[in-house]
Amino acid sequence: MTPLTQSPAWKALQNHHRDIQGLHLRDLFAQDPGRGEAMACEAAGLYLDYSKNRATARTLELLMALARERGVAERIAAMFRGDRINVTEDRAVLHVALRAPRTAVIEVDGRDVVPGVHAVLDRMAAFAGGIRSGARKGFTGEAIRAVVNIGIGGSDLGPAMAYEALRAYSARDLQFRFVSNVDATDFTEAVRDLDPRTTLFVISSKTFTTQETMANARSARAWCLEALKDEAAVASHFVAVSTDAARVAAFGIDTANMFGFWDWVGGRYSMDSAIGLSTMIAIGPERYREFLDGFHAMDEHFRTAPFERNLPVLLGMLGVWYADFFGAGTVAVLPYDHYLRRFPAYLQQLTMESNGKSVTLEGARVDYATGPVFWGEPGTNGQHSFYQLIHQGTHLIPCDFIAFANSLNPLGGHHAMLLSNVLAQTEALAFGKTPEAVAAEGTPAWLAPHRTFEGNRPSNVILAPRLTPAVLGSLVALYEHVVFTQGAVWNLNPFDQWGVELGKELSRRILPELESPGEPELSHDSSTNALIRRLRAAAKS
Ligand code: F6P
């Protein structure tokens, strides 16, 4: 394939960018009174208004041409077919199979994986039902009252985000905690008010080797056994979610208490695998199925809709437009629903561990920008913090606003206020406030530049009637496929994460140096050596 930046579609976009970069959203809206409705699209319970982007009909035509030229359709087909598209790890990428209905057939190496997916879901449902009803007891015969998920990265961010997002649907008589950090404060604070007799630990780790998770799991076992004083208690208070039965058994968890998944599920794509066990216990198996159905509806849309009406392709290609042609290094994700407060953190792993790469599938260094930095906070908090920079700073920051027509907690006029803020922000970002308008308000000339808003700041608005399990599933799948689309255009492998390995390797070397009783021989750089010495000395004081 022609290198990306040499391709005809890329070059056409470069020329087009030169032509339209000076165009203001004010002009685009003035030229086409129907723009707000024309540049919108609806699928799988989500409405996307992408009209406030610095794009014309021609821009979208060229972006879709780029997607076609770079083989996005072929790559979508390859993923759904179970091809080993994660080439650096020689694995299929089939998170879409996790939410497929029972009747679907999806094969890896000629074997249908759907029956296995549903067998695990059925076991999870039985287990979750037992915890929720109180039928499944702890070691002393008392019902489980608290569920602590121990995991990190994809084995934490998805479940933690989903629990927060779906808290309104959760069993309120159960407590849920999420421990991820190897900093003992995380575990200590999470369990300080819990009773070991009524606490269940879900040890979630795809590999069952992750340092942080294994350390927290060992501390959890010690905490449990200190109170229950019998190794046999582990069977009642620990379950594992992993792909590695041998390691689970070696840790001391009976594999009868293990929920499996497969190497074709990437960590950051695993929240709807057995990694979602805590989510299922929280919201119950029926709601969990609705959650999976939301994912599946977006999968089907992504697989079948023409690019021009395909939400993930549209959002993904607009992201490419800003990252590569406007030089935008970041994207702000701004959920106007407090239940989605962990959504930006969840998206950071999904997007940045996936497309934070600088070599192509063939191993060549890229000469274009790839995955941007994702960040955000729930509205309206961000408005009183960093929005100043988005409105008047020197960086172009495309924003995704997420909002729901109905609140799950209607209270007086709060929700209308919340929604009025979403709409006000997108309007202000797009249209700004001209020097003339500022002057007409009687602002003195010296102050006018400070009170002028350039506008022309792009944003998307994603709307749904209300936050439900299905809508959350659809929203997550939307971004999973945005990442996929962009990874295909950038010719990256969004499914490996070699970039996290070097730090892990070095920490394994540094740990014994920090712990050594004698003076260790240090062979790092002078900064690292000095820091190790200083920490060792301070630890003794
Ligand atoms: O270090 C990165 C990573 O491999 C993530 O991709 C993954 O989600 C996380 O660690 C946790 O891995 P595991 O589920 O195997 O413990």
Automatic annotation (TrEMBL):
Do you know which Gene3D superfamilies this protein is assigned to?
A: 1.10.1390.10, Glucose-6-phosphate isomerase like protein, domain 1 (3.40.50.10490)
- Please write the reaction equations for the catalytic activity of this protein: alpha-D-glucose 6-phosphate = beta-D-fructose 6-phosphate
| Entries under InterPro entries matching the protein | G6P_Isomerase, G6P_Isomerase_C, Phosphoglucose_isomerase_CS, SIS_dom_sf, SIS_PGI_1, SIS_PGI_2
The protein's name is Glucose-6-phosphate isomerase
Q: Name one GO molecular function term.
A: glucose-6-phosphate isomerase activity
What NCBIfam families does the entry give? PRK00179.1
Q: Which UniProt keywords apply?
A: Cytoplasm, Gluconeogenesis, Glycolysis, Isomerase
What's the Enzyme Commission number for this chain? Answer: 5.3.1.9
Q: What general EC class does the enzyme of this chain belong to?
A: isomerase
Recorded family membership: Belongs to the GPI family.
Which HAMAP family does the annotation name?
G6P_isomerase (MF_00473)
Q: Which Pfam families match?
A: PGI
- Gene giving rise to this polypeptide: pgi
Q: Where is the signal peptide?
A: none
Return the SUPFAM superfamilies for the record: SIS domain
> What is the native source organism of this protein?
Mesoterricola silvestris
Q: Which residues form the active site?
A: E353, H384, K504
Q: In which pathway does it act?
A: Carbohydrate degradation; glycolysis; D-glyceraldehyde 3-phosphate and glycerone phosphate from D-glucose: step 2/4; Carbohydrate biosynthesis; gluconeogenesis
- In terms of one coarse class, where is the protein primarily found? cytoplasm
The terms describing its cellular component in GO are:
cytosol
Q: Reply yes or no: does the keyword Acetylation apply.
A: no
Location(s) in or outside the cell: Cytoplasm
Top-rank taxon of the source lineage equals Bacteria
> Which GO annotations describe the biological process of this protein?
gluconeogenesis; glucose 6-phosphate metabolic process; glycolytic process
